[in-house]
Each structure stands twice: as C-alpha cells, then as structure tokens.
Structure prediction request, 256 residues.
Amino acid sequence: MKIKLKVWRQKNKDTKGAFKTYNVDHASPDMSFLEMIDVLNTDLIRKGEESIAFDHDCREGICGMCSMYINGHPHGPLQTTTCQLHMRTFKDGETITVEPWRAKAFPVIKDLVVDRSAFDRIQQAGGYVNVNTGGVPDANEIPISKRIADEAFDAATCIGCGACVAACKNASAMLFVSAKVSQFALLPQGQVERMERAEKMVAQMDAEGFGSCTNTYACEAECPKGIKVANIARMNREYLGAMITSYDASSGGGGE
Ligand code: FES
Prediction:
C-alpha cells in the first residue's frame, strides 16, 4: 500500500518545527505503524537525509514509550498503543498526519520525541510504600476481595504513555496520577500513607504545569489501557481527605 505521511520535524526544543511530507510506497498492511516509520527512515538514511526521531522500546504495548499523535488521536484511530497499530487500519493512498504529544509539561526533544520525565517526578514525589511491611507474605495471607484486587490491578495497568495528557484540551495528567494513586490506595500495604501520597503527587502534578480536569472524559476514551475516570474521583477523595486531615492537625486536632 502507498501512504503519504505528514510528519512534524523539529531539530530540538529551542527551534521551531514544521510538517514535512514523505511518500511511503511499499508499506505492508501487516506492518505496525512503527515498522512503517522504520522503512521510511531506512530510505531517508540511504538518501543521506536525517531519519525521523521517535520513541519506542518494547513494541509490545507494555512500556508506553511509543507516544505520537496520529490523525488527531493519541496513538492513532484505535484505542491501542502506536506499536500495536497496524497499517491495515488505514486506507491505501491515505494521507496520515503524525505529531508529537502537545503539552507544556512535555517539551519536544526532537521530531516526535517528547520529554515525559514530569511523570517520573510525580511518581517519585509519592508513588511508593515507605512503611516496613516485613518480609514477603504468602499470597493468600492478606485477604483482599476480588473487587478491590481487580480495581487495583486495573489501575496498575497504566503504562504512563501520556496519551491522557495529549487527548485532554487542558493537558491534564489526572488520569495518569489517579491511576498511580489508586493502585496503592486500594491495597492494604499502601493505605498507611495514602493521603500523604495523594497530596504530594497532586502538588508535583501542579508544579509540572499540567492543566486541570474539566470532565470531558477524552482521557478515558483515548487511553490504550482503558484506565477509568473513576480513578480521578478516587484521587479527589484521597486529596480532600488529606486536606481535611492536615487542616485538623494544624488547628490542634479540634477541627474547628
Ligand atoms: S513501544 Fe512499548 S508500548 Fe509501544
């Protein structure tokens, strides 16, 4: 199949970028989107031109690295990662527009590669368990209901790709942060520090320059792992609890 690609090219974060058009004449419908760019890059290198920079690692839908905006959607028209998107999704002769994530907190490093270290800093701000939980207990020793285990697992499937931020008109990171808050807050080991953790992660999220949530649900619709906005409601409850608790402590415990 033949494809026309309009790709965002940008040398570095300090230079202005622009779209450049390329023709890919021998794309197989069974190629992944990244393999199609590999073919184009091989051609560009042969011609002595600079290849297109893009992020990738596992190519199995696990690592969340392959962030790019395809035809107006994060990761393209299907609710999956770019590495799991195949060329058969597109029509022969189609023009496909490819851009990097657009968000102040994700500056473009080069072409389609953005700096997503803001997500790492949010997780570092509170996303781990500090308390001594002893040795590794047997799996069945701490009873956890199936519903709670499933909800925690669903939250933990977030791969931190940033599609939620890219999909949101406010560039809000609340779906990502709420998934990370939830995966710990739901399980017994993470409950000791749950409120403090939510408070610190939300503070870091704001400091990184992400926008606020205005409930458009675009994040849930585009998330390749189907993370639910119910996690945002949980994070808001955790955060509110943290605020009330710290107000209570600072006012001498009387709560007046
Ligand atoms: S390259 Fe790892 S999720 Fe796509």
